Amino acid sequence: MGRDKILQRIRSALGESHASEHDRALLDARMDQRPSGPKVALGAERMSQFLTKVIANNFTVERLASQQLLVSAVRALMPDDETPDISVAKAIQSLGWPADWKINYGPGRHVERLCVTQALAGIAETGSVVVASAPDNPTTLNFLPDMHVIVLRAEDVVDHPEDVWARMALENWPRAVNVISGPSRTADVGGIIVRPAHGPKRVHLIVIDA
Amino acid sequence: MSAQPQGFQQRAAQALSDENLQRSIGSLKGGFVAARARAVSALPEFEAMREAGRAIKDHTLDNLDYYLTRYEAEVVRRGGHVHWASDAQDACRIIRDICARVGAKTVTKGKSMVSEEIGLNDALEADGLEVIETDAGEYIVQLAKEAPSHIVMPTIHKTTSQIASLFHEHHRQYGFEHHVEDPAELIGQVRSVLRGKFFAADVGITGANFLVAETGSNVIVTNEGNGDLTSTLARVHIVTAGIEKVVPTLNDTSVLLRLLARSALGMDVTSYVTYSTGPRREGDLDGPEEYHVVLVDNGRTKMLEGAYRPMLRCIRCGACMNHCPVYLSVGGHAYGWVYPGPMGAVLTPMIAGHEKAQELPHACTLNGRCQQVCPVKIPLPDMLRHLRHDQWEEGFIRGKARWGIDAWAWLATRPKLYHAVTRTLVGIGALLGRSSGRFRRLPLASGWTTGRDMPAPQGTTFHAAWAKSKKQG
Q1: What is the pLDDT of residues B41-99, one digit of tens each?
Q2: Is residue A167 within 8 angstroms of chain B, CB to CB?
Q3: Which of B100, B103, B390, B415 has the maximal Cβ count within 10 Å?
């Protein structure tokens, strides 16, 4: 059995320094305490640093006073003469999407022009947005579209990734937690940065203030 | 890929006269090295972070059995499966068995150095599976039937026009008739060809930058999004990871991620960092039906035993090779296996065996830059010196080299004789070389003088000069 053999090899390699029962209690305590290491000091007030950083990370950003304005904001991202054919996470299904749009509330499809998902948090340190999977927030919508629209409540912006982890319940830890910091890119051909590679060419962040 | 780390000298000599290669590896100096320097100087906390990163990895390695079993319990609690592989063959067998059981035909792969280490693609292809690398760089080297030459930039050795010809040859079947050289168009072809493969895949295999004991997650760090499409769209997600990848908590990953992006690319953060945990949950609309992790030992428990334990801190950023004068002269392929540069010169003999990698620990000037830039402070020069010593002890250094070192040791441990001999040789050298100040040829040193001249000694030994300067105060 590979497992026992490898654990035995590890224990014999660690020799005397190998954890005693007392140490195990200390290790359990470290797991519970979740110590955090040095962080990068914020250069500005939280929201202003967050917005500066997301723009530096090549997101496009817009702020809305209320989520009631979301549908028209999404409409404005698409050509006027086309009937929208988009995918929307069920988490934001109830926002009054027009009946004449083609809207997929399922998982992502082969070709996706635009998908809308709900963010869990924003991180000011790095200008990142955290999107967690759930039955009403499918992960594929984050990666398949040409344009990914992320809806984030202003109050969910925190300073550091550690602050996100502190807010999340480990018991219900999601299947996928995507920390997104800009459009998909690669420099694998000639060292030239190309956007997109496999994921979205454009990531549009909509911050809802109320 | 099979290990061919022997023959370093021959491949290095070829690399030195390869103009395309020299141009592309030269670009690393202006690119990653300058970007890293900027990112680090912008961050007063960087040294404290390196120390914290080192401490996290050391603590985890010192208690590796505890953290691996905690991690395993979390994966299982969330519906995943953990497999333990003693060596490369074991790891391949486990993955082949999973593929066979689920009736897989198509396998997509995110970037995984461990999968290269265990020779996974060859093993799966031998079973008749279609295996597709999805990272654009890995896809390119797979089409070219080559190995990656850098752990972060696998195509650093390839020019745009070489890639254009490769795609022209292979992408016709997908309707791309014309030869194009524009990087955006070439990447557009990759996007279009691979989009279908992601959806067709039965099994998606990714690596792990970290495994989190607290949640049972594997963490992948990418810019392309290919890893996420691989792990989300396939029916079965398999993670391949070395046993040293586990860290205790989510907070620990945050410390190490700050170090990783800056050390690898000179950036604060990559486009995507993803924590994947188990198979799809009840009610989920996407995600894999099965989630497996293959924990690979393959020589790592041997490294854990003693002098080489710090090597297991490595977070695979590539900073050591970006700053290595040897790597920057000969490129990654000269090292003959999956891990090039200073980290490879340590890992290859430890994993593939001394007998297969004798030359690598000697392909080093011991200048120490790799250790200075290593985000987790691995004493790479000490490891390489230690490997040389082990090679000697185990009798892998033979013939002229052994004889020469024996003679040197005999002389160097007799100070009076040593001083007399060096004084005489330096005196003769200064006399013979006084006209030009250098030698074009020297007996027993053609290895040096065919490439460059040997400067003539100045007439006095270092010891004598030192003593004189001390006397003068």
Answers
A1: 999 999 999 999 999 999 999 999 999 999 999 999 999 999 999 999 999 999 999 99
A2: no
A3: B390
- Domain endpoint, select from B269, B300, B331: B300
User: Using CA atoms, how far apart are residues B269 and A24, in angstroms rounded to an integer?
Assistant: 34
Q: Do A183 and B271 touch (CB under 8 A)?
A: yes
- The ipTM estimated for the assembled molecules is 0.97
Q: Which amino acid is at B249?
A: T
A contact residues 40-79, partner B, Cβ 8 Å cutoff: 40-41, 53, 57
The answer as to whether B6 is a domain residue is no
Q: Last residue of a domain, which of B278, B300, B322?
A: B300
**Contact assignment for B249 to A185 by CB distance below 8 Å:** no
3-state DSSP call for residue B153?
coil
The total number of structural domains that make up chain B: 2
> Are A196 and B257 in contact (CB < 8 Å)?
no
- Closest-CA residue of B relative to A7 is B65
Counting every residue written for chain A, the total comes to 210
Q: Domain containing A93 — which CATH number? A: 3.40.50.10420
pLDDT in tens, A59-96: 999 999 999 999 999 999 999 999 999 999 999 999 99
For residue B5, report the phi and psi dihedrals to the nearest 5 degrees.
-70, -10
> Which CATH number characterizes residue B258's domain?
3.40.50.10420
Q: Running DSSP on this structure, what letter comes out for residue B207?
A: -
Question: Which residue range forms the structural domain that includes residue B235?
Answer: 45-300
Chain B CB contacts of A175 under 8 Å are: 276-281, 284, 287
Could you tell me if A117 lies within 8 Å of chain B, comparing CB atoms?
no
Q: What's the CA angle centered on B108, arms B103 and B114, to 5 degrees?
A: 105
- Bridge partner list, A60: A204
CA angle A113, A114, A117 (to 5 degrees): 150
Asked if the Cβ–Cβ distance from B155 to A27 is below 8 Å, we say no
Kindly state whether residues B50 and B176 are assigned to the same domain.
yes
Could you tell me the pLDDT band of residue B463, with boundaries at 50, 70 and 90? confident
Cα–Cα dist B242/B340, whole Å: 17
CA distance B349 to B5: 9
Distance CA B372, CA B244 (A): 22
Q: At what angle do helices A21-33 and B64-77 cross, to 10 degrees?
A: 50
